[in-house]
Amino acid sequence: MTEPRSPSVELQSLQPGQGQCVRLLSSHCEDAAGAESADSGIRDADGLPVPQQIRITNITCDSFKISWDMDSRGRDRITHYFIDLNKKENMSSNKFKHKDVPTKLVAKAVPLPMTVRGHWFLSPRTEYTVAVQTAAKQPDGEYAISRWSEITEFCTADYSSIHLNQLLQKAEAIAGRMLPFTVFYRNQQREYFQQDRDAQSCFLLPTVKDNSGSHGSPISGKLEGIFFSCNTEFNTGKPPQDSPYGPYRFQIRADVLFNKTTNMYFGDFYCMYTSYHYVILVLTPDGSKGDAFCKGRLPALDRSGNRFLTCTEEEDGSLSFRHAQDVNLEVMYTEPVDLRLGAVSQISGHQLMSLSTANAKKDPSCKVCNISVGR
Asked: In Å, what is the CA distance from 327 to each residue of 101, 173, 191, 244, 254?
């Protein structure tokens, strides 16, 4: 037997001129005309059951299922549920005292569990608190309400593969033509390359990715790697002489990191309130720990047939490499890299700090790189 679908409720903002409150609409049991706004009159009432043991399940980046237990006494009087949803950092709750509180929600009483869905209010990887009241609409249009339930906490999830594929398609649309390149490179300050590496045999070591880019990216704060660039200047075909990260550059042949035994995944697509757009790609040896993390979480890309970064075998058996011209590629390699396989040198250009992506926040208003879920 297939599991019956639970009623679904959508978080929807009122249109300009209709006030600042928010409706919780039940797409299963009512249309928009039947929804009630949170600024209706309310009064405390005895006899309505208080929700107990709130349960949050089936959590995604922009939805969740909610259910609870109730005493049978007075249950037949319930016409609506009042739901108080807040980000955890904002623990002060107004409980319907003000009309401009966007997280005080009203839903018609429907069978539980019900699905709450709304990317206007639910963001990925965000901690929320939720409490519930039962309510009975009175003949005069006001509500009789129960006491609030205990507060329950939950955290929304990362982007799913569906959301990441939507981001991937947006990135592919602006990637541009492919240009040849021969090396990956990483810029840092002098001290980064001169630190004592005897214990690690001169290896660059992976570190956990910061929280830059899309808030819902599954790799942020979880996947370890080393970031490299591969973009070249159009007129020279070589890496640019400017960098936001430092005047010293480690270069390594492209085939050392990217070859027939390397798997590639799409990690993110974002901008930082500028016209520059960034694509994060993950390179990881087949069967490695990083590869195991990416499988099932990130969209896999064909090494020789994608819009961002390709590795193609030529007739003589050599490998040739190309990168997309119109996006800045951030290539994350998940394994340690031996400095002795490349070379460190000083570049002649400037350090463009304004282009650094370290812990950079994504522009939530950009239509090019955002999808219809929490940012």
From this structure: 40, 11, 29, 16, 19
Among 194, 172, 146, 171, smallest CA distance to 47 is for 146
Contacts of 358 (CB under 8 A, 6+ apart): 210, 212
User: How would you classify the pairing of strands 80-87 and 127-137?
Assistant: antiparallel
Distance CA 317, CA 15 (A): 62
Q: What is the pLDDT of residues 3-44, one digit of tens each?
A: 445 555 544 332 222 222 233 333 333 332 233 334 445 555
pLDDT tens-place string over residues 268-283: 999 988 889 999 999 9
318 or 101, greater pLDDT: 318
Cβ contacts of residue 295 below 8 Å, gap of 6+?
none
Q: What is the pLDDT of residue 111?
A: 92
312 contacts 362 by C-beta, under 8 angstroms? no
* 290 vs 334: CA distance, rounded Å: 6
Coil, strand, or helix at residue 252?
A: strand
Give the count of beta carbons closer than 10 Å to the beta carbon of residue 23.
19
Instruction: Record the tokens describing residue 316, joined without a space.
Output: 């003589």
H, E, C per residue of 140-155: CCCEEECCCCCCEEEE
| 121 vs 320: which has the higher pLDDT | 320
Measured in residues, the chain has a length of 375
Burial class from Cβ neighbours inside 10 Å (0-12, 13-18, 19+) for residue 362 reads: buried
- Strands 183-188 and 248-253 turn out to be antiparallel
- 73: number of Cβ within 10 Å: 10
The pTM (predicted TM-score) of the whole model is 0.79
Within 10 A of 192 (CB to CB), how many other CB atoms are there?
15
Instruction: Take residue 21 and report the two structure tokens written for it.
Output: 């409150």
Report the alpha-carbon distance of residue 82 to residue 106 in Å, rounded.
5
